[in-house]
Design a protein that fits this description.
364 residues; alpha/beta; Leucine-rich repeat, LRR (right-handed beta-alpha superhelix); 3 domains; 14-stranded mixed sheet; 14 helices; 13% strand; Leucine-rich repeat, cysteine-containing subtype; Leu-rich_rpt_Cys-con_subtyp
């Protein structure tokens, strides 16, 4: 019989709910665990207490993922034990309140000091997710960018401590391909730093959902992004209107655009996504409640449109939907609200056949 591996031991540990039983199992299997981790390449762990034995035994690890609170002590251990890391996924599931006292949270979540130790030791990091880590600020992320010059993916969503000064450094990157800033305090100035630096020639995906401090000047600066294919601006507040979205029409490279829940942007933005300007294949306008029949019909004859989401857009009619579906030869999916002006023609109608292709219609 072969010895138990790391995955099997972790599954057993996960099934034990009694704290004392867990401790006993941990002590009994500690030596087996160390041996099992020698060849471990990837680790997704939900029990940080195991790290003090797992990490020192995992010198070949290239991907580490943990969505629980981690102290600076564990970050230092990670830095000492796993210098070959390429992929660091530390996006956290729970909401951390930076104002809570240490005795309420247990040991503090890691901060810039802990992050700096890791990135200085693991300079070949290619992908890093720090979403929701509230104690991470400009200093830690700046150290990451300076040490890991091949960084291609960076997720800072929910990192409320970062400022526009950091975006000046991010804008200088030659390597970033995918940047997530959801819920960050980025302003128009920060966006200008991003759009005017080296990053404008390499960034392909920019996700800025729930960034409600940006407005016309910041959005207009994105016109300088030469390789941008994927842009997410959902839930960015009332400062983004049709005139701001109109400024994006000159970005010919856009393939995916998410404008969902921009309550003051609808008709002009959609009318400038036709064949005369940008031609995205995926458009999400869910929650844009001011979208009218005029705006929807502007998508007719769109040459590349494959996916169109109109959930919670109630001011359009089934007749307009049919017109768009029948004229967009590439369309394969459209999402609709059951509260549109004219109800769907018959119960359960969820497929449409045009130009020798089926279109899926999803109602919600």
């Amino acid at each position: 019989m072969e010895p138990l591996g790391y995955d099997e031991l972790l599954l057993i540990y996960d099934k034990i709910h009694n704290v004392h039983d867990r401790k006993s199992f941990y002590q009994a299997s500690k030596q087996i665990l160390k041996v099992a981790c020698i060849h471990l390449r990837e680790l997704d762990i939900g029990f940080p207490d195991l790290l003090k034995d797992v990490l020192p035994s995992s010198p070949n690890m290239v991907k580490f993922k943990c969505n629980k609170r981690l102290s600076n002590t564990y970050m230092e251990l990670l830095a000492r034990s796993c210098p070959n890391l390429r992929d660091l996924r530390l996006g956290i599931e729970e909401d951390l309140d930076p104002h809570k006292a240490a005795y309420e949270l247990g040991e503090f979540d890691f901060n810039d000091d802990g992050l700096c130790v890791v990135v200085n030791a693991c300079s070949r990091l290619n992908e890093v997710d720090l979403s929701g880590r509230l104690h991470v600020g400009d200093v830690g992320v700046a150290s990451l960018l300076q040490s890991c010059t091949g960084l291609a993916y960076l997720n800072l969503s929910g990192c409320a401590s970062i400022t526009d000064e950091l975006f000046k450094l991010i804008g200088k990157s030659w390597s970033l391909r995918h940047l997530c800033l959801g819920g960050c305090m980025v302003s128009d100035l920060g966006l200008e730093y991003i759009a005017k630096g080296n990053l404008r020639t390499c960034l392909q995906k920019l996700h800025m959902d729930k960034c409600d401090n940006i407005s016309k000047n910041g959005i207009s600066s994105l016109k300088q992004m030469k390789e941008l294919t994927d842009l997410k601006l959902s839930n960015c507040g009332v400062n983004i209107t049709d005139s701001e979205i109109l400024a994006l029409s000159s970005i010919k490279t856009l393939e995916y655009i998410n404008l969902s829940w921009l309550i003051d942007a609808a008709n002009i933005s959609s009318s400038h996504m036709d064949s005369s300007s940008m031609e995205p294949s995926v458009v999400n306008l869910a929650g844009c409640k001011t979208l009218t029949s005029v705006g929807l019909c502007s998508f007719a004859h769109h040459p590349r449109l494959k996916y169109l989401s109109l959930f919670s857009c109630h001011d359009v009619s089934w007749k307009d939907v049919e017109y768009v579906v029948s004229t967009c030869k590439s369309l394969v999916y459209i999402g609709l609200s059951r509260r549109i002006k004219t109800p769907m023609p018959k119960e359960g109608f969820n497929m449409s056949y045009y130009h020798h292709n089926w279109r899926t219609i999803f109602w919600k």
